[in-house]
Design goal:
alpha/beta; Rossmann fold; N-(1-d-carboxylethyl)-l-norvaline Dehydrogenase, domain 2
Length: about 350
């Protein structure tokens, strides 16, 4: 890991936070789609659009030139939202060597194809080394990471050797990084939990307390584990940082974009107005439709996700979601992942 360079593609809050972490060790280039944002980062040493008031290290170079960002990169980190992931990666393809590890930060699913971002990566770059395509995921709220609060994450990549190398890149005094070879489980957990965060936000907006939230989180974990296992992931991954850890952070924190969307819905605001007021992407708003399509594909019952979809896409009152879930047919609680 000597004389490494890292390219972070995407200057949103989490991409910027990851760039800040690795820039303390190795030269890091942060790519922003908008030239004005790249210039502002270079001139002020902060990201005024996503993390205002937080200083970025001098080891970060900001640019809006994708080829410049990727030049000489030994690790590529993709922090682009799911709806733009394929187009940005396609534009970058000619500048990426087949052996260069590519790590996704994106917790979403491509709507048209129902692909996870590592699948999109392999689709766009068919000759790329599959052992080096993975994800960095876990309970990692960007502002807390930037503030130096202790946290943990997991790097999931098929190759154990590559995983150990990447672990060294992302490990920091305030971020403990674990390795995992279950890319499907870790990546799907990160995407699926965003739907549940919207549900948790709605519950908060409706004024429900800790008993309600605990019940919701427990059943949400069962739902995402069932679907993730059907997709090929290990149930154990859903009990770890990528699953339970991220679910807790995203469902409980007001810093979570998806939680904020759900809370505003629970308080009676219209979805269009909520989205218009946000300058960041809440992946769960789009991902819910894809999750429901995946549930149909694998014949997995997901009552919470189904109710979230009705609120988002059919205009259903959030209070009806709770009533519908509570009045479902009574069943025994299973110790496995099979009981909906």
């Amino acid at each position: 890991m000597v004389d490494m360079r890292v390219a972070v593609i995407g200057a949103g809050s989490w991409g910027t936070a990851v760039a800040t972490l690795v820039a303390d060790k190795v030269p890091t280039t942060l790519w922003a789609r908008r030239p004005e944002l790249a210039s502002a980062i270079a001139e002020t040493r902060e990201n005024p659009d996503y993390l205002p008031g937080l200083r970025l290290p001098d080891g970060i170079t900001a640019t809006a030139d994708l080829a410049e960002a990727l030049a000489g990169a030994d690790v590529i980190v993709m922090g682009v939202p799911s709806h733009g992931f394929r187009s940005v990666l396609s534009e970058a393809a000619d500048h990426i060597a087949a052996e260069t590890p590519i790590v996704s930060l994106t917790k979403g699913i491509e709507i048209d194809t129902l692909m996870r971002m590592t699948e999109v990566t392999a689709d766009v770059l068919p000759d790329h080394d599959p052992g080096g395509i993975g994800v960095l995921t876990g309970p990692n709220l960007a502002r807390e990471i930037m503030a130096g609060q202790p946290a943990a994450s997991v790097i999931a990549v098929p190759s154990e050797e590559v995983g150990l190398d990447l672990q060294k890149v992302f490990m920091a005094p305030t971020l403990r990084v674990y390795t995992n070879t279950d890319v499907v489980g870790c990546e799907s957990a990160g995407a699926l939990k965003n739907v549940m965060a919207i549900a948790a936000g709605m519950a908060a907006g409706l004024g429900y307390g800790h008993n309600s939230l605990a019940a919701l989180l427990t059943r949400a974990l069962a739902e995402i584990t069932r679907l993730g296992a059907a997709m090929g992931g290990s149930p154990l991954s859903f009990a770890g940082l990528a699953g339970m850890g991220d679910l807790i952070a995203t469902c409980m924190s007001t810093q979570s974009r998806n939680h904020r969307v759900g809370r505003a819905l629970g308080e009676g605001q219209r979805l269009d107005d909520i989205i218009a007021e946000m300058n960041m992407v809440a992946e769960g708003v789009k991902t819910t439709r894809a999750v429901l399509s995946l549930a149909d594909r694998y014949r997995i019952e997901m009552p919470i996700a189904t109710e979230v979809g009705k609120v988002l896409y059919e205009g259903r009152d959030p209070s009806h979601m709770v009533a519908s879930l509570m009045m479902r047919q009574a069943k025994p609680e299973m110790h496995g992942i099979e009981s909906p």
